Structures are given as structure tokens and as C-alpha cells.
């Protein structure tokens, strides 16, 4: 009897170990799981499934179809982009995603303002991921969520010897099935990572090619100039570009591609300095390390660049736009952003990850842009995902509807709501996960 019990414990332990998904999860994998039980928890996270399940059930009883996703690491594009991708697969409801440093949501039917407040309430809880989810649910339904173990799975004792034998046979079959599924899922995760790297490499290559053409054009300007200082900047830009191009050849990680993107920003400023001196103008200020020196709307656009202000409910940020887009803004037009493919979806360049050559503002939703000489800013709304048409849609003249709550002095973007239901998304970055 003891041998049988020991064998049962070993088999059940093996079942649990191999059933855990390996590697980074894809929206398809997560959607398949949360569509069945309402939540996904990455292996290794110390989250009580019973309390998460109870919180999801509590939301459902109050009429909120909520799907909770807890990820160990930040997915490409951030939690908000991942939530939006999962929502696409599910087709309805609200998806809440919590990762290492980002949290976000996407919804078809909930008030964005209520979700904004709920997200802030969850992040304000003193506990870990479980308390975060319970805080979000409590805010959404306007009632406290039981922090106990209700809703958790329980295990009961077995029957006689015959029942134990049957159970061992079933567990053995499940072990074989799960081993096969885990290997297949691990392969899928590796393919997902490879696809993300390939997407990022494709975009970085486009930006490298664009810069090569810019270097040729500025070389002609410098050659016609009498000053020597502009040639020094051109030589520095050429060296920086060459180093970036050589690094690109062997870059197989998103972190490495993000470093290359930063080097291209440095080369853009050096080219701007060379062109300015060749034209008898002063060298533009060197951007801080964390700032981008590229056109906010399209990083393939060449300089010169001028400063613009992006206004959001979370505060204002200074960015740069090329001369052509600045002229469009002054004429009352809306420059169309470059679309970068992220996880198989087109994302505006400012919201694409830095590793993809984008601006890294994954939280950017509703905002306005203004440059010197404009009377009123031009407004953009990238929140609700259209099924067709341009991402750069919106109306000018009036300030943007706030969808990212918070004050102008906030150190990191905060999301709020507009008060209307429909397809919407939002999130926050720079959070600290509490275990």
C-alpha cells in the first residue's frame, strides 16, 4: 500500500512539473487557457490559484467578464499590447495583464475610466499579484473581495485498492500526454521568440537602409562646405553607422537590437550636426541618453528635427519631429505614423518597442502634439483598435480626451478612462512587482 501511495505522489509531482508551460507565452497559448478557466498564471509565480479563481468568479457574478493573465516577464510590446492581442483571440470581455514592470488591460465592454481606477487600485495594494487582482476586482464591482481560500481546488481521499490502481493508470496516461504537450508548447514558445526577433530585425534593417541614404545626401552637402568641423561630425556618424550595421549582422536577441536602435539615434544626431554646420547653422543640442533623436512619427525620416511637445493626461513630454511633419502640423494636418509589425499586428512607431526601432511608449493612447508656431495642438486617439483604416485617426483643434489618468508631474505614465464603453485599452509601465 505504501509503495502505491509513494508511486502516486511521484507521478502526480511529475504531472505538475511537466504540465507547466516553458518559456515566454504567446497570446494564442494564453487565450486558449483563459478562455476555459478565466485566468493564466506563469509557472514560478507565487500566486494562489484559488484566490485568483475566486476573484474572477466574483467579477463574473457582478456582470464583469474578466480574464486575468499573470506573466513572469514583460512580453514584447508590454502588458497592454499583450492584453489587446489576447482580447483579439477571445472576442469579448476584458483582459487584465500583470507582468514584471508593466500592467495593462484591453476591453470590449467595460468603461475605460472604471478600468483605469481599478488598475490604480490594484497597483496600490500592499501585497503581491493576488492582492493586485483582488484590488482590481474590488474596484470594478464596488465591493471588497474575500482574500481567503474560497474557490480553491481541493483534493479528497481515494477509495479502495481498485480505485488506486485506476488512478495510477490515468495519471500515467496523463503524464505521457502532458510530456508530449509540453515539448510541443516549448517549441511554440521558441518559435514565438524567433518571430519577435525577426520582426525587430526587419524594421531595424529598414532604418539602417534609410540612414545609409541620408549619409550619402549629407556627404554632398558637406563636400560643398568650406568648414572642416562638419566633416568631423560626418565621419563620426559614418563610424557609428558602420558599428551598428556590423552589430546587426549577428544580433539575435531583442536586447541587442535595442542597443543598435540607440546607436542609430546617436548617428542621427551626428548627421544633424554635420548638416547644420554645412548650412551655416549651430549644432543642435545633444540629446540626453534616455531621449530619442528621431522623428516621433517615423524614425526613417531624415533631419533636421525640431522639438515638439506630446501632451497626455499623465503629463507632457518633449520629442522630435522632422521638418516635413512639423510643417504638416502647422498646416493643421496630421502626420501619419510609420506602422511597425509587433506580434503580427501593426503598431504605430511611437508605441512600438525600442528593440523594434520604435519610441517605446507602449502606454501611449490619447494625446496631442504641438510644435512652435501652432495655435492649437493636433489630437490623436490610438486607444480603440479600428478594424480598418488609419491608426492616425482623430480630430484636431480640441485637446485630447484623457484616457491616462494621473497628474502632469507623474514620473511614469498612468492610465485613466474616458467614461464610454467599447473597444479600448490602457496600462502603466515602470511598476515594481511585489512577491
Structural notes for this entry:
This protein is of the alpha+beta class. Among the domains are: 25-156 and 410-435, Roll (Diaminopimelate Epimerase, Chain A, domain 1), CATH 3.10.310; 294-401, no CATH class. Helix content is 46%, strand content 14%. It contains ten helices and eleven strands. The protein has a five-stranded mixed beta sheet, sandwiched between helices. Strand 9 and strand 10 (378-381) form a beta hairpin. The longest helix has 63 residues, at 161-223. The chain is elongated.
From the structure above, extract its key features.
four-stranded antiparallel β-sheet; 10 helices; five-stranded mixed β-sheet; alpha+beta; 435 residues; 46% helix; single chain; Diaminopimelate Epimerase, Chain A, domain 1
Provide a concise account of the structure shown.
With about 425 residues, the protein is of the alpha+beta class.
Amino acid at each position: 500500500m505504501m509503495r502505491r501511495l509513494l508511486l502516486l505522489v511521484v507521478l502526480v509531482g511529475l504531472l505538475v512539473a511537466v504540465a507547466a508551460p516553458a518559456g515566454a507565452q504567446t497570446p494564442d497559448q494564453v487565450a486558449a487557457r483563459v478562455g476555459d478557466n478565466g485566468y493564466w498564471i506563469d509557472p514560478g509565480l507565487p500566486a494562489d490559484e484559488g484566490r485568483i479563481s475566486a476573484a474572477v468568479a466574483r467579477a463574473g457574478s457582478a456582470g464583469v467578464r474578466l480574464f486575468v493573465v499573470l506573466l513572469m516577464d514583460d512580453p514584447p510590446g508590454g502588458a497592454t499590447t499583450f492584453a489587446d492581442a489576447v482580447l483579439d483571440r477571445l472576442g469579448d470581455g476584458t483582459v487584465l495583464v500583470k507582468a514584471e514592470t508593466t500592467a495593462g488591460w484591453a476591453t470590449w465592454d467595460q468603461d475605460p475610466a472604471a478600468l483605469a481606477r481599478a488598475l490604480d487600485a490594484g497597483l496600490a495594494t500592499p501585497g503581491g499579484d493576488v492582492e493586485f487582482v483582488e484590488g482590481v476586482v474590488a474596484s470594478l464591482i464596488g465591493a471588497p473581495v474575500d482574500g481567503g481560500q474560497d474557490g480553491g481546488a481541493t483534493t479528497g481521499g481515494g477509495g479502495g485498492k481498485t480505485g488506486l490502481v485506476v488512478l495510477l493508470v490515468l495519471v500515467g496516461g496523463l503524464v505521457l500526454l502532458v510530456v508530449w504537450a509540453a515539448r510541443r508548447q516549448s517549441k511554440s514558445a521558441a518559435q514565438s521568440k524567433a518571430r519577435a526577433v525577426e520582426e525587430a530585425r526587419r524594421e531595424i534593417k529598414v532604418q539602417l537602409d534609410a540612414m545609409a541614404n541620408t549619409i550619402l545626401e549629407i556627404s554632398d552637402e558637406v563636400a560643398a562646405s568650406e568648414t572642416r568641423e562638419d566633416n568631423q561630425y560626418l565621419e563620426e556618424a559614418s563610424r557609428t553607422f558602420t558599428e551598428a550595421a556590423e552589430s546587426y549582422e549577428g544580433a539575435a536577441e531583442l536586447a541587442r537590437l535595442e542597443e543598435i536602435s540607440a546607436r542609430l539615434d546617436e548617428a542621427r544626431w551626428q548627421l544633424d550636426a554635420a548638416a547644420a554646420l554645412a548650412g551655416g547653422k549651430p549644432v543642435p543640442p545633444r540629446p540626453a541618453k534616455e531621449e530619442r533623436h528621431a522623428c516621433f512619427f517615423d524614425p526613417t525620416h531624415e533631419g533636421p528635427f525640431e522639438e515638439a511637445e506630446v501632451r497626455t493626461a499623465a503629463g507632457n513630454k518633449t520629442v522630435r519631429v522632422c521638418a516635413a511633419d512639423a510643417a504638416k502640423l502647422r498646416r493643421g494636418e496630421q502626420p501619419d505614423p510609420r506602422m511597425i509589425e509587433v506580434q503580427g499586428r501593426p503598431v504605430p512607431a511611437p508605441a512600438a518597442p525600442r528593440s523594434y526601432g520604435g519610441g517605446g511608449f507602449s502606454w501611449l493612447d490619447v494625446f496631442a502634439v504641438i510644435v512652435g508656431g501652432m495655435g492649437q495642438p493636433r489630437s490623436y486617439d490610438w486607444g480603440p483598435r479600428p478594424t480598418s483604416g488609419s491608426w492616425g485617426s482623430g480630430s484636431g483643434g480640441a485637446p485630447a480626451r484623457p484616457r491616462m489618468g494621473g497628474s502632469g508631474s507623474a514620473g511614469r505614465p498612468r492610465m485613466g478612462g474616458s467614461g464610454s464603453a467599447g473597444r479600448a485599452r490602457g496600462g502603466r509601465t515602470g511598476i515594481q512587482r511585489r512577491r
